[in-house]
Amino acid sequence: MKIMVIDGNSILNRAFYGIRQLTNHEGLPTNAVYGFLATLFKLQDEEQPDRTIVCFDVKEKTFRHLKFDTYKATRKGMPDELVAQLPITKQVLDALGVTRCELAGYEADDLLGTISRRADEHGDTCVVVTGDRDSLQLVGGGTTVMLVSTRMGQTTYQTYDTAAFREKYGFDPIRLIDLKALMGDSSDNIPGVPGIGEKTAMQLLHDFGTLDGVYANIEDERIKKGARTKLQNGEQSAKDSFWLATIDRNVPLDLDVEHLPAQDIDETALYDLLTRLEFKNFIKRFDLSGESVSAPRLPELKTERVENVLEAFNLMDSLTDCDRVYAIVPETLGAVCLLDGDTAHILFAESFGDAWNDILRRLFDGTLSLVLHDAKAAVRALLQRGMDPKGIVFDTAIAAYLLDPTQSGYDLPRLALAYCNAELPELDLDDPAAVSLLGGQEDTEKAVAQHVGALRAIYAEAADRIEQLGMRKLYYEIELPLLRVLAEMEAAGCAVEPDELRAFGDKLDVRIRDLTEQIYHDADGEFNINSPKQLGEVLFEKLGLHAPKKTKTGYSTNVEVLERIAEDHPIVPRILEYRKLTKLKSTYVEGLLKVISPVDGRIHTHFQQTVTATGRLSSTDPNLQNIPVRTELGRELRRMFVAPDENHVLIDADYSQIELRVLAHISQDEHMIEAFRHGQDIHAATAAKVYHVPLEEVTPQMRSSCKAVNFGIVYGISDFSLAQDIGVTRKEAGEFIKTYLDTYPGVKKYMEDIKQTGREQGYVSTLFGRRRALPELKSKNFNMRSFGERVAMNTPIQGTAADIIKIAMVRVRDRLLRDGLQSRLILQVHDELILEAPKDEQETAMHLLTEEMEHAFQMDAPLVAEAKAGHSWYDAK
DNA sequence: CCAATATTG
DNA sequence: GGGAACAATATTGGA
């Protein structure tokens, strides 16, 4: 029999330091568990042991150190993050059916020694796996030691038997003990003989074989005089060290090595644990379906190709009476899959030629109740074909997002795994090759059938949970209608001035080239200015400037740092300007030019509806929510976003202080509400209260500090960051916050309450019932918990504001339609909506826009929106 | 693929 | 005793 014995502590440690930051949704660090399991599985695969045993230290003083109190170990404690992973590692091992072994007062290596000795006595072979070189003394007989070492992220495994050890070290493994007794080991707190180092120790062993041999021949001429004195003085220390270095191979361990139970996996427990740890690839490895835990696997579906038009229409007619019609509709609209009972009907565009548009039109004519996944892309495509898609009653991606907005993605295979424990194949119906008649269509058909089957199962579960969590209105009255609005906005796009954009870019280029040259001159040599690493070296080494801050990897060279040292050398302001200009050039000028549609010359962003944890939208390809505005030069870019012609204008309306108004409303703070009701400048009003002066006597500095606190409050303030922000001491900032909270006691109470309810419920929610789970609030880790608390304070505010503008968007769009106006929404930037309007509708549209925004929700601190019109975004703001 | 840096609300 | 502001996306350089 072959037994593998693993030093659990040593391997966990290695894994912990080898893999960076890995946490699951509970906020539990998982890097060590992960690395440990990866190592375990790899070794089991390669070594194929009959039995596996994992040994752990039981912390505190170990047996040997107790005996030698003077040499008490000052072992470095494990970091909290690693300790936190110990229990779950043991649980996983238990679930795996791996024998686990620990004994109070003994280190893992004593257990390894004992088990390997017993195995050896029974004639079994034993592989000891550890990262600790000391354990090499165990090599011999049937015992080999596999040394695991990690260098530069590369893990290597080296197996030693007696021969391999001799070859490398030139003596027998057991003599490692003698060696240590002589030379000591500082990392293990073994003193050895003071003054004897590795060289002398090796020579002594070479000459006399053992420690005892050395002392028996202490007068031998081969021992130099100095060494002899040291050895004589250190004799007791050497003997103690010998004892300390000896792994105890006779531990009173209650483990029958001959009758170890076979490894018996508890699939249910293992599945649950691995799910909790989010180790999906390990779940896969064991082919754990989770069947026994929850839902059954998805049923097999028949697939049927639909190839003639009549058949297609008949199918859709027959589906008209269905309660729900599950459909896979890819963005390219190159194929469609419809589920009817246990049959997945698949239609490929190329089978229908010109009739395909008629089929799509019929499908989306509003007579079928369609359940789709990620419908926005398809809706946008349909709109761009001049259709008016109707009948979408559910989108599983959006539903899953509402149920947990913090997931990293919501593609169908992922949801299928989460909701049905089903593995879905990759499917890319948007890839023309995949839908081509020529190749691989069998597989495509099967895959799409599985997808549509999963869609049905996910729908059933998700729709139910939306109800249970009280998100019906949020889902059906805000998010689902918004899907259509966003698709329309994306399809509409925004007109731009490519020539002016290029001209702007050329202007930047001239200046960038100029700066580059000067910077090279200042630095007395060329380097890559864009590389923070190289820049840091130039500034802080070559030029010897004082480095005020560091990052994990080196010098920090960000704006704050550079501004602080701007006076010290003329290169610094040039770098600051260089940074600003290259940012504008690469991200905005080049980035935007790249995404101008060749079809209509406009820019069509993609609004992501299932990304942010708070409920906000985001914008990608390109991101039109971070077009510069704060600096004059950057703001110039907004002149490039324009109304398409002289007969149109852009109308830009933004909410005034929406987040603070939401805070006032949610917290029901009388004073803050009053300030807003009176239409006061909230930062000035806050200053008047905090400083106890009349409103007229508030200085700009006072207002500015209070503005910073108002912002800070929304983010979950700390005295440290506020101090940094407004440039006072941490103590002053702390007192300032206190005064602020006394001024707005309702706010203070809200901040306290939300943390508590968040902790009790496990989540926080917006006024419209949008949720965000916050397991961090229960974390024992201060940083983690503090983050949870700030998020608990911020999410209801940011999220409610997001809900409100979403409502406004749906209403604005519906109202424009209802009133028969040509104006259309084209952009949203969190608290700002932008319309493209015919000039003759300008006044009407501006009025409509502000009205719908302000009336989107009745708050105690009333919503205020202000609109402005102009030819470009620059002019409209 | 991540870290650093920049841009926005 | 330290830690240390909320939410995003794009570009660049470098392991």
What does this structure look like?
This is DNA polymerase I. Keywords: DNA damage, DNA repair, DNA replication, DNA-binding, DNA-directed DNA polymerase, Exonuclease, Hydrolase, Nuclease, Nucleotidyltransferase, Transferase. Pfam families: 5_3_exonuc, 5_3_exonuc_N, DNA_pol_A, DNA_polI_exo1. This protein is of the alpha/beta class. The protein contains 35 helices and 23 strands. A hairpin with a 6-residue loop joins strand 8 (325-328) and strand 9. It is globular, with a radius of gyration of 35 Å. The relative contact order is 0.06. The chain binds a DNA duplex (9 and 15 nucleotides) through helix 23, helix 25, strand 16, helix 30 and helix 31.
Offer a few descriptive terms:
877 residues, alpha/beta, 49% helix, 13% strand, DNA-binding
Major beta sheet, strand line-up? 3-2-1-4-5-6
How far apart lie the N and C ends?
79 Å
Which percent range fits the helix content? 40-55%
**Which oligomerization state do the chains in this entry correspond to?**
single chain
Instruction: Please tell me how large the radius of gyration is.
Output: 35 Å
Overall strand count:
23
- What does the overall shape look like? globular
Mean pLDDT across all amino acids: 89
Query: How many DSSP H or I helices?
Result: 35
- Uncertain segments are 60-76, 291-295
Q: Structural class of the helices, strands and pairings?
A: alpha/beta
- Biggest beta sheet summary: 6 strands, mixed
Q: How much strand? A: 5-15%
